[in-house]
Design brief:
two-stranded parallel ribbon, disordered N terminus
Length: 399
C-alpha cells in the first residue's frame, strides 16, 4: 500500500474549525494558466446555486510552475477556498491526502478544466447526503449524457471501459470521468485499500467499491473536452492496463476486501456465474492481457536466451497468472474447493501452447524467415489457436 510520505502544506480555513456538507477537491499539476478562472467560476456557482454547505480545496501535487502561489492567493482572497500542497506528484495521492482528513459529510473531486457541467453536482452528491448510495460518479457513456470530444479520445475511453468489463467484471459505465464523490465515512474505509496514486486511482477505487458491495450511483453528464489538456492519453492508457493486470492478480488472491460482510454490515455483492458466451468474453479479455504480457516478455528475452528460450520462459511466467485470472474472472470460482484439480488440469493444458509455439518457431526457422518480428507473429497465432483448445477443456468443468 503506497501512501504520501510528505506532510502537506495548507493555506486557508482551518479544518478543526470548519465543517461542510461537501468538500470538493480540485487536484492540479502545473495549471497556472487555468487555475484562477476555474476556481472563480466554481466558487461563484456554489455561492449562487448550490443549496448545501461546501468547501473547495485546491490540491497542488508537486507543480513546478506558479500553481501553488496562485492557489495560496485564491485561498486568502476567496471565501470557502483552501489550498493544500504535496511535494509528490499524483492525482490519486492528492485525493487521498485531502479525503482522508476531511470533516465533510461527502468528499468529491472534479478536474480543473471543469469539463463537466456544474449543474450535475447536486444530482451527484444528493444520494450520498441522504444515505441512499455510497459512491457517485459522472458518466459520459450512459444514455442521456451529452459529450463533445474528438473520435480518438471517445474510442480510447470506450475501449478502456470494455476492457474493465471483460477483465475485472465491472458494471459501472465510465471509470475515468473527472467528476466523482463518496460519503466520507466510506472513503475512510475504502481509500486505504487503493494502491495507485496516479490516474488509475479512479478505476481501482470503483472496482474495490463494487467488490465490497457498495452502491454506486451514476449521473449522465454534459461534458465538453478541454482542447488544452496536457494529459498524455497513450501513456495513461498503458499505465491503466498495468493497473488492470495488477488488480486481476490481487483480486484472484482475495485482496481488496473491507470485511467479510462488506462495509456497514452489508453483504458483499455476489455475482451469478456467467453462461458460456460470458465465459468466452471474459476468457478473451484475460487472454488479451496475457498476450500483451507474453509479447513484451518474449521481446525482452529474445536476444539474451534466443527464440526458444524466450518462448519457454515467457509462457511459464504467464501461465500461473493466466490460470488464476481465468479461475476468478472467467469461471467465477474461488476458495479451496476444486483448486488443485483446476490447476493440475490447467498446467497440463499449458503444454498445448508450448508445443504449438515451438512447432511454429521450427517452421519459421526451416523457412529461413526467422527474426523477432516473424517469430513473434507466428507464435502469437499458434498461441491463440492453442488457447481456444484450452478454453474448451477448461470450460467443461464449469457446465
Amino acid at each position: 500500500m503506497t501512501t504520501t510520505t510528505a506532510v502537506p502544506l495548507s493555506v486557508g480555513p482551518s479544518l478543526d474549525r470548519l465543517t461542510a456538507d461537501v468538500e470538493i477537491v480540485v487536484p492540479v499539476y502545473n495549471e497556472e494558466q487555468s487555475l484562477g478562472g476555474s476556481v472563480d467560476r466554481l466558487q461563484r456557482y456554489l455561492s449562487e446555486h448550490f443549496p448545501l454547505t461546501w468547501l473547495i480545496t485546491v490540491a497542488d501535487n508537486a507543480s513546478t510552475d506558479n500553481t501553488w502561489g496562485i492557489a495560496c492567493r485564491l485561498a486568502k482572497e476567496m471565501d470557502g477556498v483552501r489550498a493544500m500542497h504535496l511535494s509528490e506528484k499524483g492525482r490519486g495521492r492528492a485525493l487521498r491526502a485531502v479525503w482522508l482528513q476531511s470533516n465533510a459529510t461527502v468528499v468529491a473531486y472534479m478536474d480543473v478544466d471543469l469539463s463537466t457541467d456544474l449543474a450535475a453536482l447536486l444530482p451527484l452528491v444528493a444520494p450520498l447526503i441522504t444515505g441512499h448510495s455510497d459512491v457517485a460518479i459522472g458518466t459520459r457513456l450512459a444514455e442521456g449524457a451529452r459529450v463533445v470530444r474528438g473520435p480518438r479520445r471517445e474510442l480510447i475511453s470506450r475501449l478502456y471501459n470494455l476492457v474493465l468489463r471483460t477483465t475485472l467484471r465491472s458494471s459501472f459505465s465510465d471509470a475515468q470521468c473527472g467528476f466523482k464523490a463518496l460519503r466520507a465515512d466510506v472513503a475512510r474505509r475504502l481509500v486505504p485499500l487503493v494502491e495507485d496514486n496516479d490516474w488509475f486511482f479512479d478505476t481501482e477505487l470503483l472496482v474495490l467499491a463494487e467488490r465490497n458491495g457498495l452502491r454506486i450511483h451514476e449521473v449522465a453528464v454534459d461534458w465538453v473536452d478541454d482542447p488544452g489538456s496536457t494529459v498524455d492519453v497513450v501513456q495513461t492508457a498503458k499505465e491503466d492496463l498495468k493497473g488492470v493486470a495488477r488488480m486481476m492478480l490481487g483480486l484472484a488472491r482475495g485482496e481488496g476486501a473491507i470485511g467479510p460482510t462488506g462495509p456497514l454490515g452489508r453483504p458483499s455483492t455476489a455475482r451469478p456465474k456467467p453462461g458460456r458466451s460470458g465465459q468466452l468474453l471474459h476468457f478473451a479479455g484475460v487472454g488479451a492481457i496475457s498476450t500483451v504480457t507474453f509479447a513484451v516478455l518474449f521481446a525482452l528475452l529474445y536476444r539474451p536466451v534466443g527464440a526458444v528460450g524466450a518462448d519457454v520462459l515467457a509462457l511459464v511466467l504467464c501461465a500461473l497468472g493466466n490460470l488464476a485470472a481465468n479461475r476468478r474472472f472467467t469461471f467465477t470460482d474461488r476458495g479451496p474447493a476444486g483448486r488443485r484439480d483446476y490447476y493440475a488440469k490447467g498446467l497440463t493444458l499449458s503444454l498445448l501452447p508450448l508445443v504449438a509455439t515451438l512447432a511454429a518457431l521450427a517452421a519459421t526457422s526451416a523457412a529461413g524467415v526467422a527474426g523477432l518480428g516473424a517469430d513473434l507473429t507466428v507464435i502469437t497465432v499458434a498461441n491463440l489457436i492453442a488457447s481456444a483448445v484450452r478454453f474448451h477443456f477448461l470450460a467443461r468443468g464449469y457446465r
